[in-house]
Design a protein that fits this description.
CATH architecture of the largest domain: 3-Layer(aba) Sandwich
Distance between the termini: 17 Å
Number of domains: 2
Strand content: 15-25%
CATH class of the largest domain: Alpha Beta
Helix content: 40-55%
Largest sheet: 8 strands, mixed
Structural class: alpha/beta
Number of helices: 15
Length: about 375
């Protein structure tokens, strides 16, 4: 079976975090006799065609080089909203994505198209599906669902794409519920993405009082609340921050104003292999985000037997069972977060919770398990059973 992936986020190099789960899925699908070819946008110094970890990738240019800033930044919607040049680039993105997708479809002859994120991938996929008659599967990952939640035009387009899809999947039950709210006639299947179980494993010494945050430095990821909690904790802790984003300067100023700047260590964005030692060494990973579509970093930490402390919001409630495989607490409550972290530091139970988290993550997010579920879905769509 041949399947064409459409995406605006895909690893640029081996080990790159951007869309890494799609590469893991594509590689695992090979073991299910599914050959995947990927169409993704261009980026700085990236070849137009390559085979990355065994998966063919075709990258399309969509604007002059200096305006190709929509992909791989995590800020596509924000850029388009505030910049005329980004709006023009988006038109080029959709047009070039469709043209290149159509070319690759003719050459590759896939049995179906699997679009990741309803926008822009699902929109382009619906055009390709309508042109060729090939079935479309659309998977929603989180940022695309939040886009539709806040925009009436986006919701109308979302409903049209769902109607044109033979199957729709979401990576968490929370996302599925949001999609049903916006498109009552839809019936999304909850099917999470895989995590690199071969990479994220336990081992090495673990700190007693060192916290870890991994994610975009923006309001949705909630790191400002984590800094507030760090200042309120009874037991002084160190905090490693891995990630980049638009709020970087403001967050550094906040840490200074709270008197915790000396205990916060900013490492910038790192490739996945370099995350391993941070996960293994942390006392706990903190995920203070709201409306998280899936919570990839939480699963990566669980695989390293690192306890996860998170707000009970979005897909994190699928990933963590409170008091069993991690710790969940009320969203947005910095005081509750501080007291929970103090309790985690003081409790030896965190070690058992870390071990239970790994077993749960292996059971639900191993690439071979996820690939089997998607192969079954592909067969169902092609047989007309979906």
């Amino acid at each position: 079976m041949r399947v064409l992936f459409l995406t605006h986020s895909y690893p640029r190099t081996s080990g790159d975090a951007a869309g890494s789960f799609l590469l893991h899925l594509a590689a695992a699908l090979k073991q299910q006799d599914v050959d995947v070819t990927v169409v993704a946008p261009a980026g700085d110094h990236l070849p137009a065609h390559e085979v990355l970890d065994g998966i063919p990738v075709h990258r399309f240019r969509y604007a002059p080089r200096r305006f190709q800033r929509l992909a791989y930044t995590g800020q596509m919607a924000e850029e388009v909203k505030r910049s005329l040049s980004a709006k023009i680039a988006l038109v080029g993105f959709l047009g070039s994505g469709f043209a290149n997708g159509a070319r690759v479809r003719r050459e590759f002859q896939p049995a179906l198209v699997h679009a990741h994120w309803w926008f822009p991938g699902g929109l382009v996929g619906s055009w390709l599906s309508g042109l060729s008659g090939i079935p479309l599967i659309t998977t929603m990952h989180g940022t695309d669902v939040r886009l539709a939640m806040g925009n009436s035009l986006a919701r109308r387009i979302l409903r049209r794409i769902i109607a044109n899809s033979s199957a729709v999947t979401t990576v968490s039950s929370w996302l599925a519920g949001q999609v049903r709210t916006m498109a009552p006639a839809s019936d999304p299947i909850v099917s999470p993405m895989p995590v690199a179980t071969h990479l994220f494993t336990p081992g090495g010494p673990r700190h007693e009082k060192r916290l870890l945050f991994v994610g975009r430095l923006n309001a949705q990821k909630g790191i400002a609340l984590l800094l507030d909690a760090l200042a309120q904790m009874r037991q002084p802790a160190e905090l490693d921050v891995i990630g980049d984003g638009p709020d970087k300067g403001a967050l550094r100023s906040q840490a200074q104003a709270l008197g915790v700047a000396a205990r916060v260590h900013w490492h910038g964005a790192l490739p996945q292999p370099r995350l391993l030692d941070f996960y293994r060494g942390a006392t706990a990973l903190v995920v203070p985000s709201r409306e998280e579509g899936f919570g990839l970093v939480a699963v990566e930490a669980q695989l390293c037997e690192t306890p996860v402390v998170a707000f009970a919001s979005g897909g994190l409630s699928d990933t963590i069972e409170d008091g069993v495989t991690g710790y969940l607490l009320p969203p947005g409550d910095a005081s509750s977060l501080a007291s929970t972290l103090d309790k985690v530091f003081a409790s030896e139970a965190r070690h058992e919770i870390g071990k239970a988290g790994r077993q749960s993550a292996l059971a639900h997010f191993a690439p071979d398990s996820v690939a089997r579920r998607y192969r079954k879905l592909y067969d169902s769509v092609l047989n007309g059973d979906a």
